[in-house]
Amino acid sequence: MVLTGEQREAAIQHLMSRGVAEVIVREDLEKKLRGDKQLRIKLGVDPTRPDIHLGHYVAFRKLRQFQRLGHKVVIIIGDWTARIGDPSGRSVQRQMMTEEEVRYNAQTYLDQLSKVVDVDEAEVVWQTEWFSAFTLEDVIRLTAKYTVAQMLTREDFHNRYESGSPIAVTELLYPLLQAYDSVAIRSDVEMGGTDQTFNLLVGRDIQKESGQEPQNIFTVPILVGTDGHQKMSKSLDNYIAVNDAPQDMYGKIMSIPDGPMIEYYRLLTDVSDEEIEQMQSDSASGAVNPRDLKARLARIIVADLHSEEDATKAEQAFDSVYRQNQLPDEMPEFAYVPGTGILSVLTGSGVASSNRDARRLIEQGGIRVDGERVTDPESTIANVGEVVLQAGRRRFVRLVPAS
Asked: What CATH number has the domain spanning 246-322?
């Protein structure tokens, strides 16, 4: 779709104002966006995990906006640096990965990225295209472009150095290798989260040292997780995965606290700023139920990552369970032997990861059998027929007597 001059200017303003943490150098990037040159927009992917969540989706949406303006998105698969480990935001060293693990995770990452970004129109490159030919001389020449003092200005390195915690030489290499990616692909703009700002700045320095024009930096905010406090993270179990099934995704979005809901609208939707401000005002005054705003948010996100039809079905399923107190039409089944202990049923059905986890769920009041809350971890499933096991608000398992 070819944009008119007015549409293009509006798209640039939206790109530069919504879901943006910092732009370095803003004036330069705005000038280039209004020019005729197709910019190369770099996003480095460190495929250390096979799944991605809505926190990544914030950056993906920005990539999609750059694409709609006609710019080239360049996805760098960090198959080399992933085997070293990026310590950004970490206080300890991270374990290295095998080549097979990296390849598997990278392909999964690309499959999920394609839900938002036109991967066919993007340029996907692997670091091994240049680093596999790197010699010891190349490494030494690269390290000569940066000092240890400069590295220690990075907060996590500085804190670990001050506390006497170990910092591996390989970790000091990571920002330089990521920076060299920008040289290798001649990046005009590099995107990342605010926790990556230091690495992106190193990229500017190394490009300049290599005789290239320094890239502009475009960082996006860190999305708060479903707990409403900490950043969205798999390790904190407060995430919504991009690959979640529509009903699961809808239910998780409905579970977020009211506080971060407006920020979700700003970072994850194209609802206008004026309408979002009205939502915030109406919610604060009691003119609208935050639950209804959350339902709209869930519909938008599920439709974007799945389809409008999936969003409608997910909403209907959610309403039948939580507004009309009906059981879902479909739920997984687990065969049990009458008299089996509840802990064994919870772990065997996959509801709990361990007996300890199962006890925690029971103690928190999160387990029901046929609507009755389970309070005794030593109780058994004595019913000889089918019963419904409910864990929390969204998870149901049909327990079927084993034949």
From this structure: 1.10.240.10
